[in-house]
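Entry 12.
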Amino acid sequence: MAIAAGVGTFLAMVRWRDFLLLFAAFAGLGAVLLVFVRVALRPWWQRRSVRGAGFALLAANLLVPVVWFTLMRLGLTEPADRLVTVQLGLFFAELALGGVLLLIVLWRAGEGWRRRPTPAGMRPDRRRFLLQGTALLLPAAAGAAGLGGVLESGSPVRLRRRTVWLPNLPPALSGLRILHFADVHLWHLVRLPDFERALRRAPRGEFDLVCVTGDLADDLAQLPEALAMIARLEAPLGHYASLGNHEHARGLRAVLAAYAESPVELLCASGKLLSYRGHPFVLAGIDDQRAAPRVSQRVFYPDQVRRALGPTAAEAFSVLLSHRPSVLPAAAAAGVDLVLAGHTHGGQLAIAGRSILQLNGAARWAWGVYRHKQTAMHVTCGLGHWFPFRLGCPPELVLLELRPAAAD
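Predicted 3D structure (C-alpha coordinates):
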Protein backbone atom coordinates (compact mmCIF):
# COMPACT_ATOMS: atom_id res chain seq x y z
CA MET A 1 0.00 0.00 0.00
CA ALA A 2 2.80 2.40 0.88
CA ILE A 3 4.51 1.73 -2.47
CA ALA A 4 1.26 2.25 -4.36
CA ALA A 5 0.64 5.50 -2.51
CA GLY A 6 4.16 6.69 -3.36
CA VAL A 7 3.68 5.88 -7.05
CA GLY A 8 0.34 7.68 -7.01
CA THR A 9 1.91 10.74 -5.43
CA PHE A 10 4.66 10.79 -8.03
CA LEU A 11 2.26 10.51 -10.95
CA ALA A 12 0.23 13.37 -9.53
CA MET A 13 3.32 15.60 -9.55
CA VAL A 14 4.07 15.25 -13.25
CA ARG A 15 2.15 15.49 -16.47
CA TRP A 16 1.79 12.06 -18.05
CA ARG A 17 2.58 13.13 -21.61
CA ASP A 18 5.67 15.17 -20.73
CA PHE A 19 7.13 12.54 -18.44
CA LEU A 20 6.54 9.68 -20.88
CA LEU A 21 8.13 11.59 -23.79
CA LEU A 22 11.33 12.32 -21.89
CA PHE A 23 11.44 8.86 -20.33
CA ALA A 24 10.95 7.19 -23.72
CA ALA A 25 13.68 9.31 -25.33
CA PHE A 26 16.31 8.36 -22.76
CA ALA A 27 15.19 4.73 -22.54
CA GLY A 28 15.24 4.46 -26.34
CA LEU A 29 18.75 5.87 -26.63
CA GLY A 30 20.11 3.46 -24.02
CA ALA A 31 18.31 0.51 -25.56
CA VAL A 32 19.58 1.29 -29.07
CA LEU A 33 23.16 1.33 -27.83
CA LEU A 34 22.66 -2.05 -26.17
CA VAL A 35 21.15 -3.55 -29.32
CA PHE A 36 23.95 -2.11 -31.44
CA VAL A 37 26.64 -3.73 -29.31
CA ARG A 38 24.67 -6.99 -29.25
CA VAL A 39 24.32 -7.08 -33.07
CA ALA A 40 27.48 -5.41 -34.39
CA LEU A 41 29.98 -6.27 -31.65
CA ARG A 42 28.87 -9.73 -30.67
CA PRO A 43 32.24 -10.89 -29.24
CA TRP A 44 32.17 -7.95 -26.85
CA TRP A 45 28.66 -8.83 -25.76
CA GLN A 46 29.90 -12.19 -24.51
CA ARG A 47 31.86 -10.41 -21.78
CA ARG A 48 30.00 -10.03 -18.52
CA SER A 49 31.61 -6.62 -17.82
CA VAL A 50 30.35 -5.19 -21.12
CA ARG A 51 26.81 -6.45 -20.51
CA GLY A 52 26.90 -5.11 -16.96
CA ALA A 53 28.09 -1.67 -18.11
CA GLY A 54 25.43 -1.59 -20.80
CA PHE A 55 22.59 -2.41 -18.42
CA ALA A 56 23.94 0.07 -15.85
CA LEU A 57 23.85 2.78 -18.51
CA LEU A 58 20.30 1.84 -19.42
CA ALA A 59 19.32 1.95 -15.72
CA ALA A 60 20.80 5.47 -15.44
CA ASN A 61 18.80 6.52 -18.49
CA LEU A 62 15.63 5.28 -16.82
CA LEU A 63 16.37 6.70 -13.38
CA VAL A 64 17.67 10.22 -14.04
CA PRO A 65 14.49 11.57 -15.76
CA VAL A 66 12.34 10.14 -12.95
CA VAL A 67 14.43 11.75 -10.21
CA TRP A 68 14.62 15.06 -12.10
CA PHE A 69 10.86 15.35 -12.54
CA THR A 70 10.25 14.38 -8.95
CA LEU A 71 12.59 17.10 -7.66
CA MET A 72 11.05 19.73 -9.95
CA ARG A 73 7.51 18.91 -8.87
CA LEU A 74 8.57 19.08 -5.25
CA GLY A 75 9.98 22.56 -5.83
CA LEU A 76 13.60 21.46 -5.20
CA THR A 77 14.97 23.43 -8.12
CA GLU A 78 18.64 23.54 -7.15
CA PRO A 79 19.23 19.76 -7.04
CA ALA A 80 17.03 19.48 -10.13
CA ASP A 81 19.28 21.96 -11.93
CA ARG A 82 22.31 19.88 -11.03
CA LEU A 83 20.57 16.84 -12.49
CA VAL A 84 20.03 18.76 -15.74
CA THR A 85 23.82 18.82 -16.04
CA VAL A 86 23.88 15.07 -15.42
CA GLN A 87 21.17 14.55 -18.04
CA LEU A 88 22.96 16.57 -20.69
CA GLY A 89 26.30 14.94 -19.86
CA LEU A 90 24.72 11.50 -20.10
CA PHE A 91 23.05 12.32 -23.40
CA PHE A 92 26.17 13.73 -25.05
CA ALA A 93 28.37 10.96 -23.64
CA GLU A 94 26.09 8.38 -25.23
CA LEU A 95 26.20 10.22 -28.56
CA ALA A 96 29.99 10.18 -28.37
CA LEU A 97 29.99 6.51 -27.37
CA GLY A 98 27.81 5.70 -30.37
CA GLY A 99 30.28 7.47 -32.64
CA VAL A 100 33.26 5.61 -31.15
CA LEU A 101 31.50 2.25 -31.47
CA LEU A 102 30.66 3.07 -35.08
CA LEU A 103 34.31 3.78 -35.87
CA ILE A 104 35.34 0.49 -34.25
CA VAL A 105 32.77 -1.46 -36.28
CA LEU A 106 33.78 0.25 -39.53
CA TRP A 107 37.45 -0.40 -38.85
CA ARG A 108 36.80 -4.07 -38.07
CA ALA A 109 34.60 -4.41 -41.13
CA GLY A 110 37.30 -2.87 -43.32
CA GLU A 111 39.90 -5.24 -41.92
CA GLY A 112 37.61 -8.18 -42.54
CA TRP A 113 36.86 -7.25 -46.15
CA ARG A 114 40.55 -6.75 -46.90
CA ARG A 115 41.46 -10.19 -45.53
CA ARG A 116 38.53 -12.09 -47.03
CA PRO A 117 39.09 -13.50 -50.56
CA THR A 118 36.19 -12.82 -52.86
CA PRO A 119 35.66 -15.45 -55.58
CA ALA A 120 34.91 -14.07 -59.01
CA GLY A 121 31.21 -13.58 -59.59
CA MET A 122 30.26 -14.02 -55.93
CA ARG A 123 27.47 -11.62 -54.82
CA PRO A 124 27.33 -10.30 -51.22
CA ASP A 125 24.60 -11.47 -48.91
CA ARG A 126 22.05 -8.67 -49.35
CA ARG A 127 20.09 -9.50 -46.24
CA ARG A 128 23.19 -9.41 -44.06
CA PHE A 129 24.30 -6.17 -45.73
CA LEU A 130 20.94 -4.50 -45.00
CA LEU A 131 20.94 -5.66 -41.38
CA GLN A 132 24.46 -4.38 -40.80
CA GLY A 133 23.67 -1.11 -42.54
CA THR A 134 20.57 -0.61 -40.40
CA ALA A 135 22.56 -1.38 -37.25
CA LEU A 136 25.14 1.24 -38.24
CA LEU A 137 22.65 3.96 -39.18
CA LEU A 138 21.84 5.37 -35.75
CA PRO A 139 25.41 5.37 -34.41
CA ALA A 140 26.50 7.04 -37.66
CA ALA A 141 23.91 9.76 -37.16
CA ALA A 142 24.89 10.08 -33.50
CA GLY A 143 28.55 10.42 -34.37
CA ALA A 144 27.84 13.04 -37.04
CA ALA A 145 25.56 14.95 -34.66
CA GLY A 146 28.17 14.82 -31.92
CA LEU A 147 30.88 16.18 -34.20
CA GLY A 148 28.54 18.85 -35.59
CA GLY A 149 27.54 19.93 -32.09
CA VAL A 150 31.15 20.35 -30.98
CA LEU A 151 31.96 22.37 -34.10
CA GLU A 152 28.86 24.55 -33.75
CA SER A 153 29.73 25.36 -30.13
CA GLY A 154 32.78 27.19 -31.45
CA SER A 155 30.95 28.94 -34.28
CA PRO A 156 30.66 32.76 -34.32
CA VAL A 157 27.86 34.27 -32.26
CA ARG A 158 24.79 35.03 -34.36
CA LEU A 159 22.79 38.22 -34.22
CA ARG A 160 19.12 37.27 -34.09
CA ARG A 161 16.44 39.90 -34.69
CA ARG A 162 12.99 39.42 -33.18
CA THR A 163 9.88 41.55 -33.12
CA VAL A 164 7.87 41.13 -29.93
CA TRP A 165 4.19 42.05 -30.24
CA LEU A 166 2.71 43.40 -27.02
CA PRO A 167 -0.97 44.19 -26.46
CA ASN A 168 -0.31 46.71 -23.69
CA LEU A 169 2.56 48.57 -25.35
CA PRO A 170 1.81 52.33 -25.47
CA PRO A 171 2.11 53.69 -29.03
CA ALA A 172 4.87 56.04 -27.89
CA LEU A 173 7.04 53.04 -26.97
CA SER A 174 6.59 51.36 -30.35
CA GLY A 175 10.01 50.70 -31.83
CA LEU A 176 11.88 50.48 -28.52
CA ARG A 177 14.85 48.20 -29.17
CA ILE A 178 16.63 46.07 -26.57
CA LEU A 179 19.87 44.16 -27.01
CA HIS A 180 19.37 41.04 -24.90
CA PHE A 181 21.86 38.32 -24.03
CA ALA A 182 22.65 35.98 -21.13
CA ASP A 183 24.71 32.98 -20.07
CA VAL A 184 28.10 34.09 -21.37
CA HIS A 185 29.84 31.89 -18.77
CA LEU A 186 33.24 33.50 -19.14
CA TRP A 187 35.77 30.89 -18.08
CA HIS A 188 37.81 28.41 -20.13
CA LEU A 189 35.56 27.82 -23.14
CA VAL A 190 34.52 31.47 -23.58
CA ARG A 191 37.08 34.10 -22.70
CA LEU A 192 37.30 37.89 -22.95
CA PRO A 193 38.57 37.96 -26.57
CA ASP A 194 35.66 35.70 -27.57
CA PHE A 195 33.23 37.97 -25.76
CA GLU A 196 34.71 41.04 -27.43
CA ARG A 197 34.27 39.46 -30.87
CA ALA A 198 30.69 38.58 -30.00
CA LEU A 199 29.84 42.12 -28.95
CA ARG A 200 31.15 43.41 -32.28
CA ARG A 201 28.12 41.68 -33.80
CA ALA A 202 25.86 44.17 -32.02
CA PRO A 203 24.70 46.70 -34.65
CA ARG A 204 25.83 50.17 -33.63
CA GLY A 205 23.08 52.71 -33.19
CA GLU A 206 20.27 50.15 -33.51
CA PHE A 207 19.34 49.55 -29.85
CA ASP A 208 18.23 51.78 -27.01
CA LEU A 209 19.28 49.72 -24.01
CA VAL A 210 21.27 46.60 -23.16
CA CYS A 211 19.90 43.89 -20.85
CA VAL A 212 21.96 40.97 -19.53
CA THR A 213 19.98 38.31 -17.69
CA GLY A 214 22.55 36.52 -15.58
CA ASP A 215 25.46 34.06 -15.62
CA LEU A 216 27.88 36.53 -17.16
CA ALA A 217 31.07 35.02 -15.72
CA ASP A 218 32.24 31.89 -13.91
CA ASP A 219 35.79 33.19 -13.70
CA LEU A 220 35.18 36.35 -11.70
CA ALA A 221 38.61 37.70 -12.60
CA GLN A 222 37.19 38.32 -16.08
CA LEU A 223 34.02 40.02 -14.83
CA PRO A 224 35.25 43.65 -14.44
CA GLU A 225 36.61 43.81 -17.99
CA ALA A 226 33.47 42.10 -19.34
CA LEU A 227 31.33 44.77 -17.68
CA ALA A 228 33.56 47.46 -19.17
CA MET A 229 33.01 45.95 -22.63
CA ILE A 230 29.25 45.99 -22.12
CA ALA A 231 29.34 49.58 -20.91
CA ARG A 232 31.13 50.62 -24.12
CA LEU A 233 28.14 49.55 -26.21
CA GLU A 234 26.21 52.59 -27.41
CA ALA A 235 22.86 52.43 -25.59
CA PRO A 236 21.13 55.78 -24.88
CA LEU A 237 18.95 54.36 -22.11
CA GLY A 238 21.76 52.48 -20.37
CA HIS A 239 23.09 49.02 -19.57
CA TYR A 240 21.38 46.74 -17.03
CA ALA A 241 21.78 43.24 -15.64
CA SER A 242 20.20 40.73 -13.29
CA LEU A 243 21.87 37.97 -11.28
CA GLY A 244 21.98 34.31 -12.26
CA ASN A 245 22.62 31.16 -10.28
CA HIS A 246 26.30 31.11 -11.27
CA GLU A 247 26.91 34.53 -9.74
CA HIS A 248 25.75 33.07 -6.42
CA ALA A 249 27.75 29.89 -6.92
CA ARG A 250 31.02 31.60 -7.82
CA GLY A 251 31.03 34.31 -5.16
CA LEU A 252 28.29 36.89 -4.76
CA ARG A 253 30.42 39.36 -2.78
CA ALA A 254 32.97 39.66 -5.58
CA VAL A 255 30.19 39.96 -8.17
CA LEU A 256 28.48 42.79 -6.29
CA ALA A 257 31.82 44.57 -5.89
CA ALA A 258 32.45 44.38 -9.64
CA TYR A 259 29.02 45.78 -10.45
CA ALA A 260 29.45 48.56 -7.88
CA GLU A 261 32.52 49.76 -9.82
CA SER A 262 30.84 49.42 -13.22
CA PRO A 263 28.47 51.66 -15.24
CA VAL A 264 26.37 48.54 -15.85
CA GLU A 265 23.54 48.78 -13.33
CA LEU A 266 22.56 45.65 -11.44
CA LEU A 267 18.83 45.30 -10.80
CA CYS A 268 18.34 42.90 -7.90
CA ALA A 269 14.79 42.97 -6.56
CA SER A 270 14.75 46.58 -7.69
CA GLY A 271 13.60 48.71 -10.58
CA LYS A 272 13.72 52.16 -12.06
CA LEU A 273 11.69 54.44 -14.27
CA LEU A 274 13.12 55.10 -17.74
CA SER A 275 11.81 57.26 -20.54
CA TYR A 276 11.68 56.63 -24.29
CA ARG A 277 10.60 59.48 -26.53
CA GLY A 278 9.23 61.23 -23.48
CA HIS A 279 7.06 58.26 -22.39
CA PRO A 280 7.92 56.48 -19.12
CA PHE A 281 8.32 52.75 -18.66
CA VAL A 282 9.60 50.54 -15.84
CA LEU A 283 12.69 48.38 -16.05
CA ALA A 284 13.05 45.97 -13.09
CA GLY A 285 15.10 42.93 -12.18
CA ILE A 286 14.86 40.08 -9.68
CA ASP A 287 17.42 37.96 -7.87
CA ASP A 288 17.97 34.32 -8.80
CA GLN A 289 16.30 31.63 -6.72
CA ARG A 290 19.77 30.43 -5.70
CA ALA A 291 19.57 33.29 -3.18
CA ALA A 292 16.87 31.36 -1.29
CA PRO A 293 17.07 27.69 -2.32
CA ARG A 294 14.79 26.49 0.48
CA VAL A 295 11.98 28.84 -0.53
CA SER A 296 9.52 27.51 -3.10
CA GLN A 297 8.96 29.31 -6.39
CA ARG A 298 5.36 30.02 -5.37
CA VAL A 299 6.69 32.20 -2.56
CA PHE A 300 10.01 33.43 -3.94
CA TYR A 301 8.90 34.82 -7.29
CA PRO A 302 5.86 36.87 -6.18
CA ASP A 303 7.94 38.43 -3.42
CA GLN A 304 10.80 39.26 -5.78
CA VAL A 305 8.51 40.73 -8.43
CA ARG A 306 6.67 42.84 -5.85
CA ARG A 307 9.95 44.19 -4.51
CA ALA A 308 11.34 44.79 -8.00
CA LEU A 309 8.33 46.77 -9.15
CA GLY A 310 8.22 48.48 -5.75
CA PRO A 311 7.47 52.20 -5.83
CA THR A 312 7.52 52.49 -9.63
CA ALA A 313 4.38 53.64 -11.42
CA ALA A 314 1.88 50.78 -11.35
CA GLU A 315 0.23 51.87 -14.61
CA ALA A 316 3.51 52.15 -16.54
CA PHE A 317 4.60 49.59 -19.11
CA SER A 318 7.07 47.21 -17.43
CA VAL A 319 10.01 45.05 -18.48
CA LEU A 320 11.35 42.49 -15.98
CA LEU A 321 14.82 40.93 -16.06
CA SER A 322 14.97 37.40 -14.64
CA HIS A 323 17.63 34.78 -15.12
CA ARG A 324 15.11 31.93 -15.00
CA PRO A 325 12.04 31.82 -17.25
CA SER A 326 10.06 30.02 -14.54
CA VAL A 327 9.13 33.48 -13.19
CA LEU A 328 6.57 33.89 -15.99
CA PRO A 329 3.36 32.95 -14.08
CA ALA A 330 4.27 35.21 -11.16
CA ALA A 331 5.19 38.04 -13.52
CA ALA A 332 1.88 37.67 -15.37
CA ALA A 333 -0.03 37.70 -12.08
CA ALA A 334 1.71 40.98 -11.18
CA GLY A 335 0.83 42.57 -14.51
CA VAL A 336 4.37 42.65 -15.96
CA ASP A 337 4.25 43.27 -19.70
CA LEU A 338 7.54 41.76 -20.87
CA VAL A 339 10.00 39.35 -19.24
CA LEU A 340 13.56 38.80 -20.47
CA ALA A 341 15.21 35.54 -19.34
CA GLY A 342 17.93 32.98 -20.09
CA HIS A 343 19.30 30.08 -18.00
CA THR A 344 18.17 27.20 -20.23
CA HIS A 345 20.82 27.56 -22.97
CA GLY A 346 18.01 26.20 -25.14
CA GLY A 347 19.28 22.80 -24.00
CA GLN A 348 22.19 23.49 -26.40
CA LEU A 349 20.34 21.12 -28.71
CA ALA A 350 17.42 22.05 -30.97
CA ILE A 351 15.54 20.62 -33.92
CA ALA A 352 13.90 22.98 -36.40
CA GLY A 353 14.34 25.89 -34.02
CA ARG A 354 12.75 24.14 -31.03
CA SER A 355 14.77 23.23 -27.96
CA ILE A 356 15.00 19.63 -26.84
CA LEU A 357 14.04 20.86 -23.37
CA GLN A 358 10.52 21.59 -24.62
CA LEU A 359 9.89 17.84 -24.45
CA ASN A 360 9.22 18.25 -20.72
CA GLY A 361 6.78 20.52 -18.94
CA ALA A 362 9.31 21.72 -16.38
CA ALA A 363 11.27 23.50 -19.11
CA ARG A 364 8.47 24.45 -21.47
CA TRP A 365 9.91 27.98 -21.72
CA ALA A 366 13.23 26.96 -23.24
CA TRP A 367 14.03 29.23 -26.19
CA GLY A 368 12.05 31.89 -28.00
CA VAL A 369 9.04 34.08 -27.31
CA TYR A 370 6.23 32.84 -25.03
CA ARG A 371 3.00 34.30 -23.69
CA HIS A 372 1.03 33.85 -20.50
CA LYS A 373 -2.14 35.91 -20.19
CA GLN A 374 -1.12 39.42 -21.25
CA THR A 375 2.58 38.91 -20.51
CA ALA A 376 5.19 38.09 -23.15
CA MET A 377 8.58 36.57 -22.40
CA HIS A 378 11.74 36.26 -24.46
CA VAL A 379 14.15 33.46 -23.52
CA THR A 380 17.58 33.52 -25.13
CA CYS A 381 19.58 30.34 -25.66
CA GLY A 382 22.68 32.13 -24.43
CA LEU A 383 25.82 33.72 -25.79
CA GLY A 384 28.20 31.19 -24.24
CA HIS A 385 28.16 27.75 -22.62
CA TRP A 386 29.88 25.61 -20.01
CA PHE A 387 29.77 22.45 -22.14
CA PRO A 388 31.33 22.49 -25.66
CA PHE A 389 28.32 21.23 -27.59
CA ARG A 390 25.61 23.12 -29.46
CA LEU A 391 23.52 21.64 -32.24
CA GLY A 392 20.79 23.63 -33.99
CA CYS A 393 21.04 26.14 -31.16
CA PRO A 394 23.98 28.49 -31.85
CA PRO A 395 25.17 31.13 -29.40
CA GLU A 396 23.28 34.36 -29.92
CA LEU A 397 22.85 38.06 -29.33
CA VAL A 398 19.22 39.06 -29.73
CA LEU A 399 17.96 42.45 -30.88
CA LEU A 400 14.36 42.79 -29.75
CA GLU A 401 12.05 45.40 -31.23
CA LEU A 402 8.81 46.08 -29.33
CA ARG A 403 5.62 46.68 -31.30
CA PRO A 404 1.99 47.07 -30.19
CA ALA A 405 -0.45 44.28 -30.95
CA ALA A 406 -4.21 43.99 -30.67
CA ALA A 407 -5.32 42.53 -27.32
CA ASP A 408 -6.66 38.97 -27.42
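Annotation: Residues 1-14, 143-153 have pLDDT under 50 and may be disordered. The radius of gyration is 25 Å.
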